[in-house]
Every structure is written in C-alpha cells, then in structure tokens.
Amino acid sequence: EPEVTQTPSHQVTQMGQEVILRCVPISNHLYFYWYRQILGQKVEFLVSFYNNEISEKSEIFDDQFSVERPDGSNFTLKIRSTKLEDSAMYFCARYPPPGANTEAFFGQGTRLTVV
Amino acid sequence: DAKTTQPPSMDCAEGRAANLPCNHSTISGNEYVYWYRQIHSQGPQYIIHGLKNNETNEMASLIITEDRKSSTLILPHATLRDTAVYYCIVKWNSGNTPLVFGKGTRLSVIA
C-alpha cells in the first residue's frame, strides 16, 4: 500500500479554470510538500505545509496557488486560474518530522494538462 | 545546500553492477548525501542516504569518499527495471528543507 495516494492521476482543464489536486496519506502525517515537473525539466519544489500552515514556498508558488488540509486528512493544491504553462506533473510528498532519520515518500503524481 | 554534479547519462549491461558517480565538493560537515530515482514519469523514489560511512540496503550501496567530496551509488546487479533518472542530492538531515533536484543521471540498463 502506497504511503501517499494522489488523485486524479490525470486532469485535463481549460485555461482559466480552477483545479484542485489531492493528496491522501495513509497515516496521520504532518509534513507535506508539493513539487511539480514540467515535461522534460527538473522536479521543482513548490511549497511545504506543516500543521495546517505553509512553512516554506518557492517563487513559483504565487498567488494563483494555494494549499490546505480541508478535512484533516486530504491535502490539496489549488490552482485558481490555470495557464498553459501550468501543464506539468504535480507530486505530493510526505516528509518525516524534523530530526527523524527517514526518507520522503512521493506519490505517483497528477498529470495536469491545460488546454 | 551544496551543489552536486552528475554525468547526464550512463549505460549498463543487465546483470552487471551500475556505478553512478556524484561530485559534491562543497558539502558541509552536517549535510547528508541522498539518492533518489525517477522511473519514467513516476514520483521520485528514495534509494539510500549517508553522512560519511558507506551504507548498504536492499536496493543499493553508497560509497562516500573519506573527504566526502564525492560519492558513488552502486546497483549490484542492474535489471531492466532499474532504467531511470538517478538524482544525487545533498541536504541537511534535520529539519524539513526541500529536496533540490538537479538533472540527474539517466541510467539505461541494456539487455
């Protein structure tokens, strides 16, 4: 059973529409990260989320993006008004708590296609 | 976090050992060396990490030079399923600093 499950696996949306990508952990993890990977490019950090607050974000994570944990379990990334350049794979990762000598687990990703 | 340098691509025959090098000459004393891989467009998968001692797990071995300026990931018996992009990342272990992915090494295992 995967540590992190992401839904949907593939999302096609029209430019300007809002999308919500979901990340579902199997246990009560507190630290979550979102990364994205534009086709053929590097995996890029977007935002980290701890205890229902953003703890760090990159310059990519502008006002079009938001994250929340609406029901205490699912962890969502929202893009308010999608642009063509938002087309990418989006990965959610569960991180260990500070000081824990364990690794980060990534979900299998959501492929977002903006048309 | 220290910068890493990896060759862009490597080939390995199936069943042979794959040795993937990584240079991290600016690594600081409390930074760890992590290896992840990404098979096709799947999520990155953790392989192994270490500080200064060599490490081994069920997937691979990590050899870190004594001066810690470089390391080698060893897949002892590469299979076709090991074809992937391999990322060497240097970061602090404590805290939750994000992983900074470079371009990695694209390993092709050939039958």
Structure report:
The complex is a heterodimer of chains A (115) and B (111). Chain A is built from no helices and eleven strands. Chain A is mainly β and 115 residues long. In chain A, strands 2, 4, 5, 6, 9, 10 and 11 form a seven-stranded mixed sheet that branches. Chain A has a four-stranded antiparallel sheet with strand order 1-3-8-7, with no helix packed on it. In chain A, a hairpin with a 2-residue loop joins β5 and β6 (53-57). The radius of gyration of chain A is 13 Å and the shape is globular. The termini of chain A are far apart. Chain B is an all-beta fold. Chain B has strands spanning 9-13, 18-23, 31-38, 45-50, 55-56, 61-64, 70-75, 84-92, 105-110. In chain B, β5 (55-56) and β6 (61-64) form a beta hairpin. Chain B is globular and about 40 Å long. The A-B interface holds A 31, 33, 35, 37, 42-45, 48, 50, 55-56, 58, 89, 91, 93, 95, 97-99, 101, 103-109, 111 and B 34, 38, 41-46, 49, 87, 93-96, 98-103.
Mean pLDDT level of chain A: 89
Order of SSEs of chain A: EEEEEEEEEEE
Order of the strands making up the biggest sheet of chain B: 1-9-8-3-4
Most extensive interface:
A-B, 29 and 20 residues
Order of helices and strands of chain B: EEEEEEEEE
Straight-line distance between termini of chain A: 33 Å
Largest sheet of chain B, in brief, is:
5 strands, mixed
Helix content of chain A: under 10%
Mean pLDDT of chain B: 93
What's the total helix number of chain A? 0
Number of beta strands of chain B: 9
Topology of this protein?
The complex is a heterodimer of chains A (115) and B (111).
Chain A: E1 4-7, E2 10-13, E3 19-25, E4 31-37, E5 43-50, E6 53-57, E7 65-68, E8 75-79, E9 88-95, E10 105-106, E11 110-114
Parallel strand pairs in A: 2-11
Antiparallel strand pairs in A: 1-3, 3-8, 4-5, 4-9, 5-6, 7-8, 9-10, 9-11
Chain B: E1 9-13, E2 18-23, E3 31-38, E4 45-50, E5 55-56, E6 61-64, E7 70-75, E8 84-92, E9 105-110
Parallel strand pairs in B: 1-9
Antiparallel strand pairs in B: 2-7, 3-4, 3-8, 5-6, 6-7, 8-9
